[in-house]
């Protein structure tokens, strides 16, 4: 028996080392140390020995079992470390795509567009204002002449915030509530632009994101007419897109402006001759505009007999797409450095 134990102990290191996987090792462990394993089988033979032999063989069996168990534990730790290394290697993220000198980041395309739009409008004499992204129903809808249950609420798929009474606090669906804040806080004349992030329950596609940006414009002064608005928007269009791109206004409806219009520009891809991006119309829609509705002026305590004005709201991300010839808005939000580095600031 002692010879058998010695043989098993001397063969074990080679067998343990040969176990190439955790599963192989588990089988070998059962073979050597398990209830039906070789050492257990030998242990059964102890009953037939005299007390002296039982003590000697028993001690040898214990030593063998302990040393084999230690070998198996070491090999198991080794195999687990190897397995972990394989998983880590497979899941490794290469964040070092660029080799060589220090990498300079740049301002994101949306921020560049935001800054440039603000520059253009400031150059035209506008000031800049901002408002909160979490708004109340009053600023986002009511004050803008959209009472509760008004069908026009359906124009904006709203995300409500679970705060206060149901459907009283929301993520603003447009930058128009900032108009209300500016008009209640600043006496006219007002010439202001209001860039900001807005939220809608829209599904992302080539031209839509659920979180996007707008730039709002508001002018309140004496004797402001629709022609002032058309002229301002045309001046902005050539300043931002260059002289070959022009604007046009199409009749539309917004509850907070009357009359209302859609603001279109010549397609920047085909310059008006018609292509896939502009659905062969030669025009691209960038936002809405119109003369501030008398009810809105009343809601902020302004005398509509004395003051008139216009407002506009453009999709800032869409302006970025048009100006830089990007054909899918989602590109701007994937964070892919190969896309972003095409627009160094
Ligand atoms: C408005 O949001 C009005 N507040 C605009 C306005 C302001 C009209 C002042 C009159 C006076 P509209 O829902 O059409 O209107 O959105 C304006 C622009 O935002 C759109 O023309 C488009 O350029 C952009 N836009 C709308 N939804 C999305 C979206 N899901 N993703 C990206 N851009 C969008």
Write out the CATH superfamily name of the largest domain.
Answer: Bira Bifunctional Protein, Domain 2
Shape: elongated
Task: Tell me the domain tally.
Answer: 2
Helix and strand run: HHHHHEEHEEHEEHEEEHEHH
Helix amount: 40-55%
Using the 3D structure, state the CATH architecture of the largest domain: 2-Layer Sandwich
- How many helical stretches? 11
Which distinct ligands sit in these coordinates?
A: adenosine-5'-[phenylalaninyl-phosphate]
How many angstroms does the end-to-end distance come to?
82 Å
Protein described:
Its EC number is 6.1.1.20. This is Phenylalanine--tRNA ligase alpha subunit. By secondary structure, the chain is an alpha+beta fold. It has two domains: 2-91; 109-340, Bira Bifunctional Protein, Domain 2 (BirA Bifunctional Protein, domain 2), CATH 3.30.930.10. It has eleven helices and ten strands. It has a seven-stranded mixed sheet, with helices on both faces. A three-stranded antiparallel sheet has the order 2-4-3. Helix 2 (22-33) runs antiparallel to helix 4 (51-91) and helix 5 packs across helix 10. The chain is elongated. Residues 174, 176, 200, 202, 208-209, 212, 214, 216, 254, 257, 260, 285-290, 311-313, 315, 317-318, 329 line the site of adenosine-5'-[phenylalaninyl-phosphate].
């Amino acid at each position: 028996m002692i010879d058998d134990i010695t043989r098993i102990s001397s063969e074990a290191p080679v067998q343990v080392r040969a176990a190439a996987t955790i599963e192989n090792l588990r089988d070998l462990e059962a073979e050597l140390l398990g209830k039906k394993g070789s050492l257990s089988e030998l242990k059964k033979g102890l009953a037939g020995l005299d007390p002296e032999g039982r003590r000697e063989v028993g001690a040898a069996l214990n030593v063998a079992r302990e040393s084999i168990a230690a070998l198996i534990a070491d090999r198991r730790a080794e195999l687990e470390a190897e397995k972990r290394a394989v998983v880590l290697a497979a899941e490794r993220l290469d964040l070092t795509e660029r080799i060589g000198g220090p990498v300079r980041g740049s301002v994101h395309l949306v921020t560049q567009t935001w800054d440039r739009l603000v520059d253009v409008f400031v150059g035209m004499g506008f000031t800049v204002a901002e408002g909160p992204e979490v708004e109340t129903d009053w600023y986002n809808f009511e004050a803008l002449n959209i009472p509760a249950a008004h069908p026009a609420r359906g124009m904006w798929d709203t995300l409500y915030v679970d705060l206060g009474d149901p459907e009283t606090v929301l993520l603003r669906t447009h930058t128009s509530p900032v108009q209300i804040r500016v008009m209640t806080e600043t006496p006219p004349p007002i010439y202001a632009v209001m860039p900001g992030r807005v939220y809608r329950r829209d599904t992302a596609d080539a031209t839509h994101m659920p979180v996007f940006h707008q730039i709002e414009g508001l002018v309140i002064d004496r004797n402001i007419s629709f022609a002032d608005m058309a002229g301002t928007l045309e001046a902005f269009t050539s300043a931002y897109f260059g002289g070959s791109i022009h604007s046009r206004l199409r009749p539309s409806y917004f509850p907070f402006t009357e009359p209302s219009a859609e603001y279109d520009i010549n397609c920047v891809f085909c310059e008006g001759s018609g292509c896939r991006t502009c659905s062969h119309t030669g025009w691209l829609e960038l936002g809405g505009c119109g003369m501030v509705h008398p009810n809105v002026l009343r809601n902020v305590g302004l005398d509509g007999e004395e003051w008139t004005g216009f407002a506009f709201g453009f999709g800032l991300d869409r302006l970025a797409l048009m100006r830089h010839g990007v054909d899918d808005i989602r590109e701007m939000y994937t964070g892919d450095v190969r896309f972003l580095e095409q627009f160094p600031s």
